[in-house]
Amino acid sequence: MVKFYRRDDGTYVLDVRGYTCPYPVIFTRKALSRIEPGGLLEVVIDNPPSCETVPDAAKSEGHDVLGVEQRGQGVWIIRVRKRGG
Predict the structure, then answer these.
(1) Which segments within 16-72 are labelled E, that is strand?
(2) How many domains does the chain have?
(3) CA dihedral in degrees (14, 70, 37, 64; nearest 10)?
(4) Which of 2, 21, 26, 77 is catalytic?
(5) 82 by DSSP, 3-state: which?
(6) Residue 51 is a catalytic residue
(7) Mean pLDDT, 10 residues at a time, over the chain (85 residues)?
(8) Separation in Å, CA 49 to CA 21, 22, 25, 55
(9) Model pTM greater than 0.70?
(10) Which residues pair with 19 in a beta bridge?
């Protein structure tokens, strides 16, 4: 199940663990469309190819990819700032 929420610090989190491509890209695009320009989105994934496809998709739409960081065994966080901020 996809989880999308806003933390108390204002960062949005999209948890797409358990999904393989192209779904993480699709869900990331949808999440970015729902947040304000300049907003920060953290995408939590466990599908290694998504470490490339999600940042590539975000960059192709003009968003800033701030980094891809491994968090534990087989889990990554992709940080994206929505364009226009």
Answers:
(1) 40-45, 64-70
(2) 1
(3) -140
(4) 21
(5) coil
(6) no
(7) 96 97 96 97 97 98 97 96 86
(8) 7, 10, 11, 11
(9) yes
(10) none
| Single-letter code of the amino acid located at 55 | P
Residue with tokens 């975000």: 58
Print burial letters for 1-29: b (CB count within 10 Å at least 16), e (below 16). eeebeeeeeeebbbbbeebeeeebbebbe
Closest CA to 45 of 76, 68, 81: 76
Domain residue limits at 15: 3-81
Count of positions (residues) in the chain: 85
CATH of the domain at 64: 3.30.110.40
Backbone angles phi, psi at 38, to 5 degrees: 90, -10
By C-alpha distance, which of 85, 80, 72 is closest to 12?
Answer: 80
